[in-house]
Write a structure and sequence with these properties.
Strand content: 5-15%
Low-confidence stretches: 119-127, 362-372, 771-791
Radius of gyration: 32 Å
Number of helices: 27
Structural class: alpha+beta
Helix content: 55-70%
Largest sheet: 6 strands, antiparallel
Length: 791
């Protein structure tokens, strides 16, 4: 690390220019590649969902698997038995000629139009139409009609529904309400805030850093470091989307991580540098020491974050591969910026990293001359003050009180001493709070939240409510049976399947519609009585697969699958739930090994793992209470509650565990350094907490501000991550690292640092933060009680 920091210092202009060129080059490459190509691509090997997808692909029926959405037409003062004047023709004109919309066909109760010949099924040319009517798309009271929009691919991209919505919303009139619903149209009418969430995060971080450092240069550098990582990371992520499937929410998650950890990592290094300058080091030596100490901790902490996030690749779900790789690349770039660009900018800043009052030190020879000149006046002034003190004693007492107040120990030193005196009380109280917050976690239900949880004013929510009111709650569900085999072309067999399906509880009997496609493939569409996110709908899918359908196809030479968007999410939830425990054990186990080797201790990594799991459980509990139980749901704009997205806990745990390890590393590395110096556990824990408490809580506030900014967005998933991660960081920085971990380490005592000799011989020697040279002029009892510069 010494070589890296000195190279960055001596070639600071080249380093700065190199980063500017790299960011510009990546942005140009991303633009030349056509921008991003994010898409939500589900592939679930070993599931019925994947079996049907492969079946349709093999039979050249991939169009049957294309993405779709629904236009909901409502006539407040009439009926829709007749097509509104030229509606389908107007829709065709508006959207079929828009290449960005990627619409394949438009089907309503009165007929359909196709943007391609194959979509109409009539052999006509592009834009052909059919008069085949679909009375099932008209509500019983005739005032609500549904128009199905089929896109030209299973994953047409995130811009396609936005383009379709903008092209078709002009069909609204004073007498015809037109809404759009379905997963494809989520957030198409989301309000664009004047300031994006990442900008709010930067502003909040600027304010907090300004209060911490009280100088413009030190305040701006962490923001510039994070901005460099963000600019290069997002461009690289956009390029990655052309190489592999990257989910549409990946950029926002990457922004959350890069801004948060980028500012935090720079904060740790800048704080160490300022403390070194205050101790009298030269600028170059100070930067080198900061990178060689706090920089090592940054490298170790960032590596654990990347490992935790990349652990999602072992779940076997390709939907998460791009998210994991892209986010870890962003974190890796934040480490690179912190260890190269930041030292270069610190070298350019020089001693201006300190406030003006602390960098204007006078040379020692001039001090002597000035002292010789001012000693006589000082003596006279002292005599005058002595006489005034004798005359006005109340004033003397007030001056004494002020002097006593000014010599009080820093807050974090006093807090560390308080924790050391009452460790059992703090451990029990804080632990009880975490356990109570974690209780809702045990009722968490994974699944997919439907549009009933969208904000009340959005088009998807209005469309969902219109369908539910006119057709029933279950009409929003998307389910069908797919028959593969000779039975698909047998009308008697299809009738038998339809009859058996009608006897299954929670199936809407009137909605059952057999549709032969080929001699070997047929569909049987149906609706559930319960809503898409209802647990009874999940039970219905499982009952069909396990009980109702096998007797119909066993020995018949045919196979019957349950398919549709609702069943896709059932399979997705099963796949992730089955591997969740293994994923958690892998991430926790690897982190345990890294901490064990780094700190030469068995107890410390055990404590860290337990605390990280507790903090994760408590934050999950908050998420369940808000997003599943519906507490404060309307105020936050997430509806009355629904299941937690199946992929959210995986990503959430990976991100949270990595960030928790950051704070653990910075806290315990300082304790370990003091333990090496003194061999006194109580002193090591107290000094470590006193010197890192301020910086950890400041870093936590920045992360909370960054994550909290995403609560202002319209997307339910992004709100979930914003609230969940912000609450998790608060609990971790202000409860776990400042109360529980130090308390437990005080209670455990010297056994914190126990390490079997056999392990010591076979494990490599790894140093996170090498000990600094001890100032012999500073007595041992005085070390560790200095206030952190600016904190």
């Amino acid at each position: 690390m010494n070589a890296v920091s000195r190279f960055a210092i001596r070639h600071r202009w080249w380093i700065l220019a190199g980063w500017v060129v790299a960011i510009a080059a990546l942005q140009v490459l991303s633009a030349s590649a056509g921008g991003s190509a994010y898409k939500d691509d589900f592939k679930l090997p070993g599931t019925e969902t994947q079996a049907v997808a492969d079946l349709l692909d093999k039979a050249n029926l991939t169009e049957q698997n294309n993405a779709s959405g629904t236009m909901v037409l409502h006539s407040p003062n009439g009926t829709l038995t007749q097509e509104p004047a030229g509606f389908l023709a107007a829709a065709k004109t508006a959207v079929c000629s828009d290449a960005d919309a990627h619409i394949l066909s438009i089907t309503g109760p009165w007929g359909s139009v196709a943007c391609r010949a194959s979509a109409a099924g009539s052999g006509g040319g592009a834009g052909s139409s059919t008069t085949a009517q679909r009375p099932d798309l008209l509500s019983p009271n005739k005032d609500v009609a549904l128009v199905e929009l089929v896109f030209d691919a299973p994953n047409p991209g995130i811009n396609a529904p936005i383009a379709a919505y903008k092209a078709l919303k002009v069909l609204r009139t004073d007498t015809l309400q037109v809404e759009f619903t379905g997963d494809m149209f989520t957030d198409v009418d989301a309000n664009v805030p004047a300031l994006p969430p990442e900008a709010l995060g930067f502003i909040a971080a600027f304010i907090i850093l300004g209060l911490v450092f009280r100088t413009f240069g030190s305040t701006v550098l962490p923001l510039l470091s994070a901005a460099a990582a963000l600019g290069s990371g997002l461009a690289l992520l956009a390029l990655l989307s052309h190489v592999m499937s990257v989910a549409s929410f990946a950029p926002q998650l990457a922004e959350l991580m890069v801004i948060g950890v980028g500012i935090d990592y720079a904060l740790f290094i800048v704080t160490r540098h300022r403390r070194n300058l205050q101790a009298g080091m030269s600028v170059e030596d100070s930067i080198t020491n900061a990178v060689n100490t706090s920089g090592r901790a940054v490298l170790f902490a960032g590596t654990t974050v990347c490992i935790a996030i990349l652990g999602m690749c072992f779940l076997g779900v390709n939907f998460l591969y791009g998210v994991a790789v892209g986010t870890s690349l962003g974190v890796a770039l934040t480490m690179l910026a912190s260890l190269t660009l930041l030292p270069a900018m610190l070298a350019l800043l020089g001693r201006r990293a300190l406030p003006r009052s602390r960098r204007e030190a006078l040379p020692s020879d001039r001090r002597v001359k000035i002292l010789l000149c001012v000693i006589p006046p000082i003596c006279v002034l002292f005599w005058v003050l002595y006489l005034l003190q004798r005359a006005v004693r109340p004033l003397s007492r007030r001056l004494a009180e002020r002097r006593e107040h000014s010599t009080r120990l820093p807050f974090w030193t006093r807090w560390a001493d308080l924790v050391a005196k009452r460790p059992a009380l703090f451990a029990a109280g804080a632990g009880a709070l975490i356990v109570v917050l974690a209780l809702p976690f045990f009722s968490m239900r994974l699944g997919h939240a439907d549009q009933s949880n969208d904000p009340a004013g959005t088009t998807t929510r209005r469309g969902y409510d219109l369908i539910q009111s006119a057709f029933g709650k279950g009409y929003n569900s998307t389910l069908q049976l797919v028959i593969d085999g000779p039975g698909a072309g047998d009308k008697a067999y299809l009738a038998k399947v339809a009859g058996a399906l009608a006897t299954v509880p929670d199936v809407d009997k009137a909605s059952i519609t057999p549709v032969p496609v080929t001699n070997r493939i047929a569909f049987v569409g149906f609706k559930s009585i319960t809503g898409p996110q209802d647990v009874k709908t999940d039970d219905l899918v499982n009952a069909l697969r396990n009980d109702a359908l096998p007797p119909l196809y066993n020995g018949s030479g045919s196979k019957i699958y349950v398919y549709g968007l609702t069943s896709v999410y059932v399979d997705f939830t099963k796949v992730l739930s089955a591997k969740m425990l293994l994923f958690i054990l892998a991430v926790v186990g690897l982190s345990f090994l890294l901490l064990m080797v780094a700190f030469r201790s068995v107890i410390i990594p055990l404590t860290a793992a337990a605390m990280n799991l507790l903090a994760a459980g408590a934050s999950f509990g908050i998420v369940v209470a808000i997003f599943q139980w519906g507490w404060l749901g309307d105020a936050i704009g997430v509806g009355a509650g629904g299941p937690i997205e199946a992929f959210a806990p995986v990503i959430f745990f990976a991100v949270l565990f990595g960030l928790s390890m950051d704070y653990q590393v910075f806290l315990v590395s300082r304790m370990h350094e003091e333990w090496v110096h003194s061999g006194d556990n109580e002193r090591a824990v107290t000094v470590g907490q006193a010197e890192t408490g301020g910086i950890i809580t400041a870093a936590g506030l920045i992360m909370i501000a960054v994550f909290g900014g995403f609560i202002l967005g319209d997307g339910r998933v992004i709100k979930l991550f914003g609230i969940g991660l912000a609450s998790a960081i608060f609990l971790d920085a202000f409860i776990v690292r400042t109360m529980i971990v130090p308390s437990l380490m005080h209670l455990i005592g010297r056994r914190n640092w126990w390490y079997p000799k056999a392990l010591d011989r076979i494990t490599p020697q790894v140093s996170i933060e090498p000990p600094e040279p001890v100032d012999e002029q500073t007595p041992p009892e005085g070390r560790g009680e200095k206030e952190l510069v600016g904190v």
